[in-house]
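Let us work through a complete example step by step.
Step 1: write down the sequence.
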Amino acid sequence: MSTADRSRGDTGEAIFEQASRHTLALNPLVSLRSEDLLQSAGILLKAMVNEPKVASEQWMSFLGELGEVMGGRSERQPEAGDKRFADPTWANSGVHSRLLKAYLAWGHALDTFVDRTSLGDVDKQRAHLITTIWIDALAPTNSLLANPTAVRKLLDTGGQSVWQGFQHFLEDVTKHGGLPSQVDRSAFKVGVDLAATPGAVVFRNEILELVQYTPTTAKVWRRPLVITPPQINKYYAVDLSPDKSMVRFLLDSGIQTFCISWRNPDVSHRDWGLDSYVAAIDEAVDAVRDITGCDDISMMGSCSGGITSSSYFATLGAAQHKIRNMILAVCILDFGTFGESSFGSLITPETMAAAKASSNLRGVLDGDDLARMFAWMRPNDLIWNYWVNNYLLGNPPPAFDILFWNADTTRLPARLHGDYIDLYSSNPFVKPGTLKLNDTAVDLRAVKADSYVIAGVTDHITPWKSVYQTALLMGHDTTFVLANSGHLQSLINPPTNKKASYMIGAVDPAGPDAFLNRAEKRQGSWWLDWREWLHQRSDGEVDAPPVLGSTRHPRLMDAPGSYVFEQ
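Step 2: predict the structure and record it as tokens.
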């Protein structure tokens, strides 16, 4: 392998590690709009005008530090782990060192100005959001001539890197909405490289397809597991490449596994609401009960899929015998805690009303639009990371399965989106009876199941302390797992992940800090503990079914079905 090829591979791995850690796994509960960011910018500019004394003092402080930088006396350094400045030139070259320190001093001055203003807490959060976007955008690493790695490659390739980068730029402008591509979409094919675990669609209604997977063991556990994924991405986050596939892990563990694949709605489906999805899940659950001959099931939901499956569970009432075990991953059910997320400053009655009106006008919430706005919440990882790789270095975007899945977004019907937003005000899992679905009140108090709740310690979309409140709502016997990773990586946590660790224990009513003090810390993947937890609650082993489906629910087509291909 040449030095250039090795460098390209190292760069791709670094981009994957950084980006997948911050992959957003879109959350439809927060609909960011460009107007929201513009309002945040207005708050910052207004503060500059209304508080000139603070602004001038901070400007003079910056000029003073700039003099220290130019004189070679500044000790300012980038934060540990900031890979933008990993090239040794930033430390060894006097010019680059001064440029870096001047940039850091300017960013510090801007952030300090916001902290010193008399803005309220929420407005300060919004102002900091904009300063982060500005500071990250103006990093010297984003400029061709200031980036030593890009200049070196330009010279080594005789200008070819710049030409290739320009071609990548034109393709993104014309085909990908103007932001740098995060993944090489030609590198994977759904049903071949991803979502390739053998199985069949055994039930279909207008909202979902139900995939039953082919057992890989001679004996299986009698009680099946039904996976309910989020609606804003395709279902196959749980069935990525074989080494990361949760579905394959479950099958090899003897669990009869079914997964819901949501239809990608269009404008004609604008009136599908949360009640529609709950009714569709009930039909799928009844199909699973018929196929397996088991009266009840285990159900797993993640993020918004967890909200949907919990809504279904909480309306079962007298029919609660349908669900024996509930597994919820990175899922918030107490919406009074959602303001603790990094999006909290943008969640106001005004922004929520505007978001509902926008999707209602269009008939759907488009996942691509949501992804573009979310990218600005983590611009270094989800924008400038790729700007440098794709355009300045002229490398193709990386080819990684998680990033491919993250880019394969879907739409939400306007009414479902509105229903999700309304959960903030009704908070039905905390306040029973404030929401009815299909003429039945949502009431977690009326149902009971053994529960297993997973959160990620670095999750910025569903903060772990908010997910801990979900565990409390599910009951004092709930097992709570805190993985050492972020939103998506908490879910995609195969035993092959040598860096994985987690804390585990029963929920403590005293709160999340009390849990930390008493929880057991373990190395490895929580999947292994979850497997044992499921085995203990899956009603013994039986012979694996010789065929998929049943007389009433015959095999309709091979997995992954048809809905997953709808664009």
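Step 3: interpret the result. Residues 3-175 form one domain.
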